[in-house]
Amino acid sequence: MIADKSIKELENSSVALTVTVTADTIEEGYKAALNKYAATIQLKGFRKGKAPLSVMEGKFGKAIREESTFNTIEESLKEALETVEEKYKPLAYSTPELQDEETLLPFKADSDVTFTVNYDVMPTFELPTYTGLSITVPKVSVPEEEVTKEIEKLREQNAMVIDKDGAAAVGDIVTVDYVELDEENNEVAGSERKDFVFTMGSGYNFYQIDTDLVDMKAGDEKTFAKTYAEDSTVEGYAGKTITLKVALKAVKTRDIPALDDEFAQDVKEEYKTVEDLVNATREKLESALAAKLEETKLNALSEELLKGTTIDIPKSMIDLEIEQSWKRYVKQTGLSEDQILKFLEYQNKTKEELTAPWREAAEKSLRIQLIMEQIKEKENFALDEEEVNKACDEQLKDITDEAQKSYYRTMIEDDLKFQKIAPFLQEKNTFVEGDAVEYSEFMNEAYGA
């Protein structure tokens, strides 16, 4: 039986729960444990289960009391947590940690036991004003040169690579053999490369020989000196002059299609003319821009809401967010977790060192999520029954258990309500165009956060 319990609020949305368990409850647990062991342990000189309790106590009493008391503490903690206020319930992923365990030992007979556990709780905060705000967002439009650039990309993507009879020029695709020579014109071991393919002008070759191959033809060989500037990016060669022997084995060029109605039709059947292609391309870019602007509006509003409130995020919540980010990172790399950890080991780094810079962004993201969650709860968005049924039919079609369906339906309803937050905030706040921003700068996410 619990004699008393109290809660003290700590930093970062954690609390200290102190519980006092009565001596009677402690002794009851101890005697039950003593009887259990007495019935199962065989002591020398006694038949199994027939040793007197006094003998059992003399031999094992201290260990049994310690075990039974910790078991009673665990049961008392469960009881205490069931009766605390909802705001003081521990987070599902926050395990209460017993404090100063060593000060509790040794347990004394016929004595109350008072213990304290620390754990994280859901952050509480005052929701800031989230409607009637005026938010400034960049003024951005799609310039015609971006439309042209996008169409040029399409032409490049649809280009055919064909053999070239003439001399190599910047932009051509070449296949080369090369090797570095020493002062006696002997090949330098380890520097040879066969059938290396790259596009001249791209810089995607170690020795940066793009311009050195200009005017060479397939079948030509060339030996030349190559001097690198003091600030050269070629690792280990800054300020040096070397000799290279290069054999040009093949030259290919891109045959870029003409921008005409035939090309437009090749891109998509419904395009009949170049004008159709241009208009569709412009619409696609404008649609992407509109989506980015909507995202930017919500991000700018979120930043404004963060200014108006203080939320202490518990460590366990951040740890969970970091772990989820880690799992996404592992998935994106295409490697196994063990492979990544081994690679980090080669670099003398740990998982914790890699993920440490993620914590600030994770904490900010959690603050925004908590604000949005409170807005959802406060507004209690209505859902259309048909909308819910449609989502459930699509997402739960493979589930036959009705209890599971009911559980997942609740989650789907919650998700649909969450999706209503952004449109609601867009409608209830004013977004004012600020300074003009270049399209390319904006779309490269300079204003995305």
Write a structural description.
This protein has 449 residues and is α+β, with helices and mostly antiparallel strands. The chain has 14 helices and eleven strands. It has three domains: 2-120, Alpha-Beta Plaits, CATH 3.30.70.1050; 160-255, Chitinase A, domain 3 (Roll); 265-381 and 420-446, no CATH class. It has helices spanning 23-40, 53-83, 101-104, 144-157, 261-267, 274-307, 315-333, 337-346, 351-355, 358-379, 385-395, 402-419, 421-428, 439-446, and strands at residues 2-9, 14-21, 97-98, 113-120, 134-139, 160-163, 173-181, 193-199, 221-227, 241-255, 430-436. Strands 6, 7, 8, 9 and 10 form a five-stranded antiparallel β-sheet that branches. α1 crosses α2 (53-83), α4 crosses α6 (274-307) and α7 (315-333) crosses α10 (358-379).
Question: Would you summarize the structure shown here?
Answer:
47% of the residues lie in helices and 18% in strands.
